[in-house]
Automatic annotation (TrEMBL), chain A:
Belongs to the TrpA family. Coiled coil: none annotated. InterPro entries: Aldolase_TIM, RibuloseP-bd_barrel, Trp_synthase_suA. Pfam families: Trp_syntA. This is Tryptophan synthase alpha chain. Pathway: Amino-acid biosynthesis; L-tryptophan biosynthesis; L-tryptophan from chorismate: step 5/5. The keyword Phosphoprotein does not apply. Keywords: Amino-acid biosynthesis, Aromatic amino acid biosynthesis, Lyase, Tryptophan biosynthesis. The active site is at E32, D43. The alpha subunit is responsible for the aldol cleavage of indoleglycerol phosphate to indole and glyceraldehyde 3-phosphate. The gene is trpA. Its EC number is 4.2.1.20. It catalyses: (1S,2R)-1-C-(indol-3-yl)glycerol 3-phosphate + L-serine = D-glyceraldehyde 3-phosphate + L-tryptophan + H2O.
From TrEMBL, chain B:
Gene3D superfamilies: 3.40.50.1100. Pathway: Amino-acid biosynthesis; L-tryptophan biosynthesis; L-tryptophan from chorismate: step 5/5. PROSITE patterns: TRP_SYNTHASE_BETA (PS00168). Its cofactor is pyridoxal 5'-phosphate. It catalyses: (1S,2R)-1-C-(indol-3-yl)glycerol 3-phosphate + L-serine = D-glyceraldehyde 3-phosphate + L-tryptophan + H2O. The keyword rRNA-binding does not apply. This is Tryptophan synthase beta chain. Residues 59-377 form the Tryptophan synthase beta chain-like PALP domain. Belongs to the TrpB family. The keyword Transcription regulation does not apply. It comes from the Bacteria. One of its GO terms (molecular function) is tryptophan synthase activity. The gene is trpB.
Amino acid sequence: MKLLMPYITGGVVPGWTAYLSAFEHAGADLIEVGLPFSDPTVDGPTIQESSDAALARGTTPASVLQDLADVRTGIPLVASTYANIALRPGFGDALTAAGVTGLIVPDLPLDELAGLDVPGVQVSLLASPATPDVRLAEIGRRSQGFVYAISVMGTTGERDRLAPSAVTLAARLKQVTDLPVLLGFGISTPEQAGEAAAVADGVIVGAAVMRRILDGASPAEVGAFVASLRAALSLVAPVR
Amino acid sequence: MSSITVRPTVVPGRYGSYGGRYVPESLIPACEAVAEAFSEAWADPGFRGTLGALLSAYAGRPTPLTPALRLSAELGVTVLLKREDLTHTGSHKINNVLGQALLARRMGRTRLIAETGAGMHGVATATAGALLGLPVKVFMGERDMERQAHNVFRMRLLGAEVVPVTTGSRTLKDATSEAMRHWVTDADEAYYCVGSVIGPHPYPTMVREFQRVIGDEARRQCAAELPAAIPDYVVACVGGGSNAAGTFAGFVETSAKLVGVEAEGGSGAANGEIGVLHGFQSLFLQDEHGQIKEAHSIAAGLDYPGVGPEHAYLRDLGRARYVTVSDGEAIAAAVRLARAEGVLPAIESAHAVAWVVRAAGTPELPGGSTVLVTLSGRGDKDITTLIAEADLA
């Protein structure tokens, strides 16, 4: 089965955790929860806006993790945040206490991983279309849980079509790792999700979800969008 | 006095625990390409020769060392000014930019991108782009564009595209974030010309090497001018810290006491905590949750919440000390230098002068000391601010 991981910025709106159960009921396999950071250098306008909105509400990494500890979903939660948050002392314990089992830190590449101290949490590494083969293999070896394949050279954000680089990268990664390869960055529609899942083991959908939430869509409405992604993925045969 | 040896750290790109390369995976190959190209170029006499020729025939180097005679008499310390304000484009930024633009051309890159705060790095990059025929795109916070309207016009006059950044505090921090976001989308063709000793490896080291011409020249000039050959104190203002890093590089292995002067509201080295931003680990102003705080300074060029990693390391070693100066002290120092010496410094540089004014005759800077102060830029760009802030009664 193809994997679906929708993204939400923690604390973006009051009662934000209601979206988590909507995602789960819509057929998400995992949920990526962004811990907002003041300077999200890897993110495009939509996720930047959602981070600003969360911070303006007084959201902190600790408050997001506390919210997660209070709700407890039935599917794995993967936190994502920036190195400045992830490298702070005690961060690993805070993740574990919140029931988070995975972590993505987009500005903490292979070379700087040694500074990260999150025992018991699976750290998924990112791979990019520009990553050379030798390094891609190392990313495949050292990633945990899944490998996050960046579909296009750029920041997060909706795009009109799936980049050709996504297909190439997914194929290259499949040769160097047995972990699931999830494609993210720019996957915005069920059609694109289906197209991406034809070459990868699943998709990560962030900005398309967040734009709906920022526009005021309810958990049920966003859940329906996630269900449409799930439906598109279910039409795709497994890669292996 | 015995000389002090500060060796570079063993791991490339690391200054103690600071530095590193905290960038998205997509930018790792671009950083590696710059590191490799710089390493080759810096070892190549041809590259060094071309850069040296440009620095003298185009940028106006060497810049003079000016004894500030009247100010010295007033303060009771001997003040020598290293005149980066006399370079082409009016600040030390040109030293670094000519080096990086030549490197970009050597790497076959077809355009330059840059971030700017006060606009001087943007003007320098636009200038180098015009000189070498490389299109330039400069990211600048909307607030800084208002404060530095003349420099915005200068950049456009030189043919550069100035992109307003409307996120966050709309200053240098946000312009830097936006430039990095743009670099990811264009890493194959564009060369990111970083304006200070910040960013992922190799930028902090590379920018220091391009700026060390300030310190090397000043060291030679001091040897010729001063009976003791070296000054007792070497003082420079610090935003990200490139003019200070370049100046300190000439004196770090001498007995001179190194002083970096930050803006009170942008004091990464004096008041920051360890963190990661814009691709490097260093000292940053941040809250208890790890969010980066907005810096505030009347000098747009010092309005940055962090400091280059080498400065953080020199601070930890005790080799340099970092002090802060208020907006008001900086303005007063700019006016004082103008009236005493006929030299109007950039408000950034006036911070360094302000510390000398404040500390002279105290145990921090005893009477009779010899002080080298880097004037990183000239104050023409700050006239609007001075009209609003300076009390000329």
